[in-house]
Design a protein that fits this description.
By secondary structure, the chain is an alpha/beta fold. The chain has eleven helices and twelve strands. It is globular and about 70 Å long.
Length: about 375
């Protein structure tokens, strides 16, 4: 019997409806052509499918389809956004936070080595950075603010609308990593003054290996491409487009737009069940602020219990002790340390994340199982 899956923040399975649609763009009986082939029907069919997916993705964030750039995932999108504008900027100061995804942090550290100045904001205890913090960090050399919408370990939600207003006030570009919020929370790139936004297919029941970078046409910004060789994607990202993956993320985005709000309501209930059970366990710490976080992510520290030992004992549950992108590291989560947790509490943390195929019986079973295992480990 497979373990109960509660690691949807790491990745999601491809929705069967998405997989079925994708299968029609792979073999000779389907629309397998190169979207850049303009001289025959095979290319025309593929191009039509690609452009339809662009429309589907754009609708989720109130964008123009011409503002959607296909990438290999949010990591590449983050790199293209930050490096792309930095390499063409006369200014040298970027504002981000200490608890961003490594795709942003490592990119900013790379730029530091190239002579850029990076301000890493310290979030509050819930994992959020405020518009006031951004405003205080601005100087005459600032050109870019890059902050995530939803934190991947805590679920903390940054107020991108207020931060966007600060960016507009000072004429700064605003990049948002929306890998954990795209299709789940309402995002209006125009109302929030967002210039660039990153997202991934595999976080929304689409395929791995495909992502998007929204680039606001109103901003009239230029990006230095990371990849050269054909000038695809409006000159920003060269390479033959993977039609089947693009169709997959497009269909996944449309399904999220149709069903995402109902799913969030389900996750609200699941979080309540989980936290109610955990509150009966002595010496726990709910990390972040449930009142300002996405309900599909719950992060809990179990004092006096090692997180890796706890996960090993919970071999019938698939979950995480932190971000899957850093799961090979044995050191405490830099995100939890960044909000002020001690090494002990950070080491004892587990992240539970719900998804489309989680049901209430699984949540109740996991909550009871965790309580039992924690009690047993503390008595040994």
């Amino acid at each position: 019997m497979n373990p109960i899956y509660m690691d949807y923040a790491a990745t999601t399975p491809v929705d069967r409806r998405v997989a079925k649609l994708m299968s029609g763009f792979l073999d000779f009986d389907g629309s397998f052509g190169n979207p850049a082939s303009r001289t025959h029907i095979y290319g025309w069919q593929a191009e039509e499918a690609v452009e339809n997916a662009r429309v589907q993705v754009a609708k989720v964030i109130n964008a123009d389809p011409r503002e959607i750039i296909w990438t290999s995932g949010a990591t590449e999108s983050d790199n293209l956004a930050i490096k792309g504008v930095a390499q063409l900027s006369d200014k040298k100061h970027i504002i981000t936070s200490k608890i961003e995804h490594k795709a942003v942090l490592d990119t900013c550290h790379f730029l530091e080595e190239q002579g850029f100045e990076i301000t890493f904001l310290t979030p509050d205890s819930s994992g959020c950075c405020s518009a006031e913090q951004v405003q205080e960090a601005v100087n005459e050399d600032t050109f870019l603010v890059s902050l995530m919408h939803v934190n991947n370990e805590l679920g903390a939600i940054n107020d991108v609308f207020e931060i966007g207003e600060v960016c507009r006030k000072y004429g700064l570009l605003f990049h948002v990593d929306a890998a954990q919020s795209f299709g789940k929370l309402s995002i209006d790139v125009r109302a929030s003054s967002i210039d660039m936004l990153s997202a991934s297919g595999h976080k929304i029941y689409g395929p791995k290996g495909i992502g998007v970078l929204f680039v606001n046409r109103d901003s009239k910004l230029s990006l230095q491409p990371l990849i050269h060789g054909g000038g695809h994607e409006f000159g920003m990202r060269s390479g033959t487009l993977a039609t089947h993956q693009i169709v997959g993320i497009g269909e996944a985005a449309e399904l999220m737009k149709l069903e995402g709000q109902k799913e969030i309501e389900k996750y609200d209930r699941f979080r309540e069940i989980l936290l109610s059970a955990f509150n009966q366990v002595p010496d726990i710490c709910i990390n972040g602020d449930p009142g300002n976080s996405i309900s599909s992510i719950v992060n809990v520290s179990f004092s006096s219990v090692d997180g890796e030992t706890l996960m090993s004992a919970l071999d019938d549950v698939a979950l995480s002790s932190g971000s899957a992108c850093n799961s090979e590291l044995v050191e405490p989560s830099y995100v939890l340390k960044g909000i002020g947790l001690s090494d002990e509490l950070a080491d004892s943390a587990l992240r539970f994340s719900f998804g489309r195929y989680t049901d209430e019986s699984e949540v109740r079973s996991v909550s009871q199982r965790v309580a039992q295992v924690v009690g047993a480990l503390r008595t040994n």
